[in-house]
Structures are given as structure tokens and as C-alpha cells.
Amino acid sequence: MHWAEIETNSYWFLAAASFLIVAILESFRPKRRLTTRVERRWSRHGMITILGTLVLAGVYRISPVLMAVTVADSRLGLLNRRWLPVPVRFILGVLLIDVVRYGVHRCYHSVQCLWRLHQVHHSDPDFDVSTGFRAHPLEVTLTQGVTLVTVAILAPPVAAVLIVELAYGCQSFLEHANLALPMWFEKRLRWVLVTSDMHRVHHSEEILEQSRNLGDLFSWWDRIFGTYLAEPAAGHAGMTIGLRGFQGEGSLGLPFMLMQPFRRGQVEAVAQRTVAASGD
């Protein structure tokens, strides 16, 4: 089977399975009570995901996996060295792609024009499995572009890129789950992976907490680079999710999500946020 078929079939199967499993689990063991209607949130988040997927297909004619196939024989690839054992190349490929994603996420929170795009994700007034769908198409396009460039520069094994892409497809739902995991299990799991409790801190309305727990897949980047926060100041039961001023059902509309980065007043709000965050 062609790499493109393997990637497409595996990705959508695992993404759909992960979404359904997490959705079922969080309905039985919810961490918090949601404040907005689930059916509206899920339908609008699904719409913006479909739109983002269409934009990606129109902008890029190649996926990260196919990029890895294209540069597999490149002499310029940093990891494409015969003296490097394949297992080492595989591990380094996975780690380097993920640390770049951490860096990209950090930039979304520290560069004003990037935050204007990323705030669409944070303006979800609740936090559940569907939040993983909520991202502005321009942010999705930019992130994919950085990933493609990263793969082109590294030239990691194709299997490493495939594993990372599949992991992101599943992890996005797991880390946004409104799921109450047993504490003993959650504390051990977060030493390796970003858990929903860890990532929920990042969705706090408190600006300083929004700039913490920026990892996508592996949790140790936050510990290494000093952005780890174990718990929100108000606790998970007492914290408020979302962005101040955007915590009602009005923020769930598709037109709102698409136009939020370009609304008047957003420049001032972003500037104030940057000043507040720099005070840490």
C-alpha cells in the first residue's frame, strides 16, 4: 500500500476511534460540568475542522509523511546519515518534531499576530473532547507549514513521521478530554504525556496560566524549558475556562471563530495580554 493511503486511512481511523472513545469516557466520568450546550459546540467545532481540512488540502499538495518520503534520500537532511543507526534516527525524529511543535505553540502565545489566530482555540468557553477540533484554518495552515519545513530539514525516517502524525491525531482529543482520571494514574502518565488535567491549566482564563503547559505530545518539554505548572491556582473545580469576554454561547458561532482574529479591538486586547504575561 502507498504511504499516502497508509497515512490517510490510519489517521482518520485512529482519530475517529479516539474521539468516540474519549467522548464516551468523559460522559461517564466528567471532570467538570459544562456551561454551554454540547450539541452546538460539537457541531460548530466540527464545521471549523472541516473548513480547516479543506484549506490544508488546497494550500499544500503534500503531507508530512509524503514530505519524509520525498527527502528520504536527501544528503542535506540532518538525520539522514548512514552512520546513525535507524532506531536512533527514529527516536531523534520523533523528539525533534515534537519539540519544534512545543516551540511553535510557545510562539503562538508570545507573538501578538500569532496569538490573534490562536485565541480562537482558547475562546472555547468549555473544555472537552471537541475543543481539540477548534482551531482557526490559518493557524492550522501555518502549523502544517512549519511541520513540513521541519521534516524537510531533518529528513527523519518515514515511519517516525507517520507515528508522530498518528499520535497527534489521538493526543489532541485525549489532552482536551473532560475526563476525571484516577489521580494515581494521571500523575504517572503526565511524566511522559500531556494529560487532560495538565492541559486544562493551559485553558484557564488567567493569562499567566495560559502561558504554561505548552507541550503537544510529551510533557517533559515544559519541565525542561520552565513552563510547567502542576495545578491552576483556583484548582480544577474552581478555575474558569476560556478568554475573558468570550465565555458565552456567542463565541461558539462559526462566523465568530473565523472573524475573531480580525475584529476591531483585538489588537489592543492582544497588547494588554502581552504586557500582563511579561510581568511573570
Folded structure, characterized:
By secondary structure, the protein is mainly alpha-helical. The chain has one domain (3-278). Helices cover 62% and strands 0% of the residues. The protein has 14 helices and no strands. Helix 2 crosses helix 6 (137-154) and helix 4 packs antiparallel against helix 6. The longest helix is centred in the first third of the chain and has 26 residues, at 3-28. The mean pLDDT is 90.
Quantity of strands, as a count: 0
Estimate the helix proportion, in percent.
Answer: 55-70%
Q: Overall 3D geometry?
A: globular
Measured between the Cα atoms of the first and last residue, the distance is 51 Å
Largest sheet: none
Query: Low-confidence spans: pLDDT under 50, at least 5 residues?
Result: none
Beta-strand level of the residues, as a percent range?
A: under 5%
Radius of gyration using CA atoms only: 19 Å
Put simply, the count of helices is 14
* Structural class determined from secondary elements: mainly alpha
What are the secondary-structure elements, in order, as H or E? HHHHHHHHHHHHHH
Q: Output mean pLDDT.
A: 90
**Count of spatially separate domains:** 1
